[in-house]
Amino acid sequence: MAKKPPPPDEAHAPGEDDDAALFRAAIGPVRELPPVEARPARPRPRPGTRMAELGDADARDEFLRLLDEAPVEAGDTLRHRRDQVSARVLKRLAQGEYAVQDEIDLHHATAAAAATLLRRFLRDARDAGARCVRVIHGKGLNSEGVPVLKNLCDRLLRQRADVLAFHSAPPAQGGTGAVLVLLRSR
């Protein structure tokens, strides 16, 4: 189909070149191309786990930050609480006022095995509805240098979102060789 050039624009004064008209005159008749089917839409990307990745990244950063801190010594008291936990709750935990519903003894475990056992124990205890558990890590008197299991427990418990607070047990429940852990409810 040949299109006729449009009539000259009345806004132009006679003698002015109309670029569009000149272009159409120069290329001559044109034919319309058949319509092209639209490309199929790209598949939407799978939803990511951005928040989980951020949580893992934050936990990793916290862990690395804790590695830079001075390690816990054999006689040191472990204590930590989340912002939403009052100081009064931590004090009651330190005095052993919460009933211990389950416990694990990590004595003589390697660091890797202890980490796996502790993670599994905390998950199972929380799933069972336990609110307060005791982790026996020992005082580290047989460790060379710093108490390995005690430091591992300190760092691992600080990372976990399901741990609200923890404190070294009172002397009758293991003293600085054990830690009482307050867990978030399911």
Oligomer: single chain
Q: Separation of termini?
A: 73 Å
Into which percentage range does the β-strand content fall? 5-15%
Q: Can you count the helices?
A: 5
Q: Pick out the low-confidence regions.
A: none
Tally of DSSP β-strands: 5
Structural class: alpha+beta
Q: Would you give the CATH topology?
A: Ribosomal Protein S8, Chain: A, domain 1
Task: Tell me roughly what share of residues is in helical segments.
Answer: 25-40%
- Which word captures the global form? rod-shaped
CATH class: Alpha Beta
Strand order of the biggest β-sheet:
1-4-5-3-2
Major sheet size, sense and barrel closure: 5 strands, mixed
What CATH architecture do you see? 2-Layer Sandwich
Q: What is the CA-based Rg, rounded?
A: 35 Å
* Total count of domains: 1
Write down the secondary-structure element order: HHEHEHEHEE
Task: Tell me what you see in this structure.
- One of its GO terms (molecular function) is DNA endonuclease activity.
- There is one protein chain.
- This protein starts with 18 loop residues before the first helix and ends with a strand.
- It has a single domain, classed as Ribosomal Protein S8, Chain: A, domain 1 (2-Layer Sandwich), CATH 3.30.1370.110.
- It is an alpha+beta fold and 186 residues long.
- Helix 2 runs antiparallel to helix 5 (148-159).
- It contains five helices and five strands.
- Strand 2, helix 4 (111-127) and strand 3 (132-136) form a beta-alpha-beta unit.
- The model has no long low-confidence stretch (mean pLDDT 83).
